Amino acid sequence: MSRYDLLASTPAVRRVQQELGSAAAAGRRLREPAGEPEPLTGAAAAFIRSLDGFLVGTVNENGWPYLQYRGGPPGFVHVLDEHTVGYLDVRGNRQYLTTGNLRADDRVSLFFLDHARQARLKLFGRATAVPADRCPELVARLDSPRTDGRVEQVVTVRVEAFAWNCPNHITPRFSQDELDRALAPVRERLARLEAENAALRAELAAVRTDPKD
């Protein structure tokens, strides 16, 4: 059983598992230690680098969860090592809800979803958000690629555990860039056919207007 499942299986969760008939699996989990923080695999690291966005969940001091979307060019979330991911946080609406929540509780849940490949990765970690002017070397390391805008903070997440979700019910969707790449050969062929068609029409028009006819 993965460390992610062990961390996620709270007493309330286990009671529901008992009620809904998965008590045997829950019992096995209870006998296993949570263990040490789990290093990212090569597949997980490559998946994170390939995406242009993710969701981050925090909990505020009133106990309410908060979700925020973070986006940028593919690779804007950098895998710094097998235990750490990071990205440059740019200025937004200046509510700083996620940053404020992290000051009280550094635990986060990250959710990476790829609609095109129908794959998703969930991750538990501990995050820090530090003003960019305090760590210029790390800013330089995370600068390319990064989200456009004025950089305010450097966010790093120490990975505690991660797990892949099943692909069920993920609706295939594609970004504009993905569509452009997939359709490029089709568009090129259409352009060639249109050019050939235009040339044939011109030749036909020339034959029809030939004074020798």
UniProtKB/TrEMBL annotation:
Superkingdom classification of source: Bacteria
Entries under InterPro entries matching the protein: Pyridox_Oxase_N (IPR011576), Split_barrel_FMN-bd (IPR012349)
Database matches in SUPFAM superfamilies: FMN-binding split barrel (SSF50475)
Species annotation: Kitasatospora griseola (Streptomyces griseolosporeus)
Record bears the keyword Coiled coil: yes
UniProt keyword list: Coiled coil
Coiled-coil regions listed in the entry: 176-210
Pyridoxamine 5'-phosphate oxidase N-terminal domain span: 41-136
Any Pfam family hit: PNPOx_N
Name of this chain's protein: Pyridoxamine 5-phosphate oxidase
Native organism taxonomy: Bacteria, Bacillati, Actinomycetota, Actinomycetes, Kitasatosporales
Keyword rRNA processing: no
